[in-house]
Structures are given as structure tokens and as C-alpha cells.
Amino acid sequence: MEDSAIIDLYFARSENAIKETATKYGKMLMSVSVRILRSMEDAEEALSDTYMKTWNSIPPTRPNILSAFLTKIVRNVSLDKLDAMHADKRGAGMIPAILDELEECIADNRLPVPGEGMELREILNSFLENEKPESRKIFVRRYFFGSDVKEIAEFYGIGESKVKMSLARSRERLKSCLEEEGVTV
Amino acid sequence: MKTDKNTLFRAIGEIDEKYVSEILEEDASAASVIKSFDAARAATSAKKKASGTKKFLMYYLPAVAGFLLCAIIVKSFMTTKVSESASAGNSMATSDCAAAEPAAASEVVYDEAETNGAESMDATTVAIIDEDEDSTQSDSGASFGVGEEDIMIDGMPNPFVDCDSLEEACEIAGIDLEIPDDFGFEFERIYRAMDGRMIEVIFMDGSEEVYRIRKGLVSEFGEDISGDYNEYSVSSEARIAGCRAELFGNFEDEMMMARWNDGTYAYSVTCEDPIPEASMIGIMNMMMEQ
After folding, report:
1. Cα of A31 to nearest chain B Cα, Å
2. Measuring CA to CA, which residue among A70, A123, A35 is closest to residue B15?
3. Mutation choice for A interface testing from B15, B33, B34 by most A CBs within 10 A
4. In a domain, A35, yes or no
5. Are B214 and B240 in contact (CB under 8 A)?
């Protein structure tokens, strides 16, 4: 079913909307959640919450790109779940490694305060806009989707060292962007 | 601080949807192409297996049988001749052996024949059998080791030059062709060029060709540069960058070949295994994105 038709089902408050969403995107959403939670059982719960959040969001929201809209929800739901599960030892598995890498982007461990310069989201979008497609895709795969380096290397048919190098350079550029927008060194 | 990197990680979850969508589309496209190739490859290898057996029964087996029969006849003929010459006398034995052996060897056989005619006959027979074996190996090499195409290629120079990179191939061919790095990322590429006339890229899965794309001058090769002269039972049309393209296959939505031209350049895609029409059109559009 076309995305627009699925969105129309949400607007019509038809429960088939969730069924069609699950049919078309369930597998993909599951893979995003499993990467974060590392548990099929937890990911299934996160998926149910995702459908519920989507049901509550549409309407009024009419997503431009339904797949991306759902992916962002499932990512946030999964991270919330991870927080709840590991409040004191957050991020068992791969997430700590990702967080440590991202820490390199913050010169003195401070992020811009809302209202001071650009919002963090805007800075990230501006940074991604200026990245070359290849390095942008590698960055988004790693830090949005939580893919590991080996997985990315295999997907693009390149070496792991090339992926690591690309990520390191992207982090360096992101660090510069963050500094320019008010983070003092 | 832990909180800060967490905030950054969370914020990445709020990036513009187009960047997320970019990855999702890439995943979907890769999954669909891989899936179709896997299915098609399985079907084709089954077909290849069947056609290999058929070829063996129709051509190779009769050829081998015929050759063995000839070898047996020649062997028995030569044995008879040598036996006759040995019994007729030493001079005759020398003469027959000289016909089968080099001149230098004939003297040795002559000496041996003087003392023991039977031994010289055995030696001659062995020499003939060895020659047979050699010729058997060489013949069987032609029949089994070398395909029909290779035999033909042996007789004429290969017009293609293998290149290390797409840039090098473009330079030799004098033709521009861009292929994104992530296109067909799972396959190895072979770049080839024909001086000033054509560029060819072959996508390989291990030692098996998956598909090959060509771009060449219409003025040199005409409108069809595919080199694929198979007859297909299904055809369809598409518009690629404003050009009318023809797609061919043997079943609905299982395309094997596509060709089109823009008046200056002719393009083709040929697949070893059938792929969905949408995948074929994806490859075609990729070739025109410059």
C-alpha cells in the first residue's frame, strides 16, 4: 500500500492503519530497535509503543516521509526503553561505544544552550547538509541507526578502516560546527 | 559529560527526515536488487547445470568416443605394421620405425631390432601410444578446457583493454560514464575500454558475471552495442532520460537485456540472470545520471 494511503487510514482513524504500517515497515522498524535494545523481546515491545505513538501523532501530523517518521519514533522509543531498563548502567552493548565517539565532538563537554545561537538540531542538519553524501550516509548509519562499523563496511563494500576514518573526520567537522555555534573550547 | 553526549545522541534522532530516508531507500534498493539477483542466480545455475549435461551428451561424449575409436584403430594399425616389418626382416623394421620415430632414434631401434625384434616393436608401440596420449590431451583440452568463444577469441585480437579504474577506462574510451561507488557495491567491477569507442563495466560476483553495462558510439557500433543476439519472448519499453529504451526478457518482469541510445551514444545492460524490470530501469537511470 502507498504511504499516502496508509496516512489516510490514520486520518480516518481506521485500525487498519497500524496493520498496514506493520506489514510494510514492521521488519525495518524491528531492525532499528533491535540494534539499540539488543533483545527481540524488548524490541517487540518498543514496536508496539511505536505504533501507539504513531497512532497518537497522526493526525494532526501528516508525515512527509512515513518511513523516516516511523524510524525516528522507534529510535526514540527504544532509547527511552533502554533508559528505563538500564537507568544506572545505561547502554549495555554498543551504545556506550557510540556515545564515547560522540563525546569527541564536544570540546569541553558543553553543548549549546537553547536560545544561544542555533538549536542543536539545526546545527546537526546544517552539518549533514555540508557533508559529502558518502560520509553523511556513513555518519547517519552509525549515529542514527546505530550500525556497527563492520556492518557499514560490508554494506558499502569498503574496508572497516575507511569507515572509521570517515567517521573520525566527520566527528572532527561536527566538533568545529558545534564550536562555531557557541560551545567554548 | 555523560548527559551531554546523551543529549547529542538524542538530538541526532531529530535530524531532518531526508537524511533518514536516504538510508532507508538505499537499504530497500539494496535488499530488492540482492533478493532478485539471488533468486535469478539460483534459477540460472540450475539452467546452466542442465545445459551443461545436455552439451556433454550431445557434443563432448560423441567427440571423445570418436577420438578413442580413432586412437584404437591407429594403434592396432601401427602395431600390425610393425609386427609385419619385424617378421619381414631387420631392414624393414628399421624403415617402419624410422617413419614413426625421429632419425636419431631410428638408429637405436635398428641396433635393438638386430638383436631383438620384439623389443624394438614394443618400444615403437609405446612411442606411438605416448604420442596418442599427447594428442588426446591436446584434443581434450580443446574440447573440454576451452569454450567455443575462447577458441574464436584466440584467433582474433581482443579489442578491449582492461583498466584499473573507471577513470582510466573513460580516458581510453574517450567517453564519460559515472557509476556511484555505492552502486552494486556488493559486486566486484571489471573496467574495460575500446580505444576511443566504447566503455564496458562488468559486475562480478566472485567468478560469476552478474551484469555488464556498455556505452559506445552509435557512429561506430550502431544502435545496438549489447552484443547479445539472443531472441527474447518478452519485451517492453521505457523512457530513460528522454530516450526510448527497449527491455527484453523471457518472462514478465524478468529482464535480461536493455538497450537504448541518444543519437550519439548507444547504451546496453545485459544480465546473466533475469532481474525485475524496476531493477533494470534503476541501472539504466544510473547510467544516465551525469
Report:
1. 12
2. A123
3. B15
4. yes
5. no
Is the minimum CB–CB distance between A99 and chain B shorter than 8 Å? Answer: yes
- Taking only the tens of pLDDT, chain B with its 290 residues reads 334 677 788 888 888 888 998 888 887 766 555 544 455 555 555 555 555 555 556 556 667 777 787 777 777 766 665 555 555 544 444 334 334 444 333 333 333 434 444 433 343 333 333 444 443 333 333 333 333 333 333 444 567 889 999 999 999 999 999 887 777 777 889 999 988 889 999 988 888 888 899 999 998 888 889 888 788 888 998 888 888 999 999 888 889 999 999 999 999 999 988 888 888 888 888 888 76
Q: Which domain holds residue B176?
A: 161-288
Interface contact flag, B17 A124, Cβ < 8 Å? no
d(CA B202, CA B270): 10
pTM value is 0.44
Residues of A in contact with B21 (CB under 8 A): 65, 67-68
**Number of independent structural domains in chain B:** 2
Residue-range definition of the domain harbouring residue A50: 3-85
CB contact under 8 A, A110 and B182: no
Q: Measured between CA atoms, how close is B3 to chain A, in angstroms?
A: 9
Tally of domains within chain A = 2
Shared domain check, A114 and A65: no
The answer to whether B17 contacts chain A (CB < 8 Å) is yes
Whichever domain contains A116, its CATH number is 1.10.10.10
CB B214 within 8 A of CB B268: yes
CA B121/CA A9 separation, integer angstroms: 96
Compute the C-alpha angle B247/B248/B251, nearest 5°: 125
User: Among all chains, which residue has been given the C-alpha cell 574440447?
Assistant: B143
Q: Which of B12, B20, B23 sits opposite A124 (nearest CB)?
A: B12
- Judge: A65–B20 Cβ closer than 8 Å, yes or no: yes
